[in-house]
Amino acid sequence: MADSPDSESGSPPDGSVTALRDGALLRLTLTRPDRRNSLSPSMTDALVDALTDAASDDTLRAVHIRGSGADFCAGADWVATNSGDRRPRTGDLVRRVPHAAHRVIELVHTIHLPVVCSVRGWAVGLGCSLALAADFTVASSDAVFWEPFLARGFSPDSGSTWLLPRLVGLARARRMLLLGEKVSGAAAEDWGLIHQAVAPPDLDSATEELLARLADGPTVAIGLTKQALDYGQQATLPQAMTQELFNLELSCRTGDFKEGLAAFQQRRPPKFTGR
């Protein structure tokens, strides 16, 4: 496809990431629809910056990541990265990727805010990993999750070899990574790859319902639970319970804990403030 600004969005040739505050929500939109929202280096840097800022923003309650137009994200723009007259230096990927694509996945996975991705159309390579690293991914039933690394002649990156086996097991991970099998949104839900698949017209409403629920939750406790789930994947049961104990000590000191107890005693829904 031509490297030209999208006629409707007016986005630059190398795309952009739009960060919009919507109350306690941070909405990040990948805007490069003429390239299926493939991530240019500048877009990847923008995602890193936005997520890093969000991690220390006490006024946020949840993060929403989506793509503009008909697709979520077609992955890293390898064509643009490897075009031009000058070849990158030896070791360029080893130096650059940990601070770019890999940093995006790490931030989405570890940030103490719930992250929701809404996926329509293609979620490919880095775009697929981005959706899988989120706490919740809601996809249209006809969306396509695809890991085409080997079909392009190189090995997987962006956490796909870590994420996929934990989500769907080794057999299905091999189907996606070694055979390049495409997985529809409906099948992805059936496999346990994503949170929910819905009819295409229902994607926005299902996503907003989930975001509202998360944004109304006890934000500190959500973040600590997210951290404990991650830690528990590599810990023994005693180690995991010790981590739970420290997290419990922290969460019991929040205002939301006091509100949760008061609401239980008064038999009413809690009104958490994220504090």
Automatic annotation (TrEMBL):
Pfam families: ECH_1. InterPro entries: ClpP/crotonase-like_dom_sf, Enoyl-CoA_hydra/iso, Enoyl-CoA_hydra_C. SUPFAM superfamilies: ClpP/crotonase. GO terms for molecular function: catalytic activity. Belongs to the enoyl-CoA hydratase/isomerase family. This is Enoyl-CoA hydratase. It comes from Mycolicibacter longobardus.
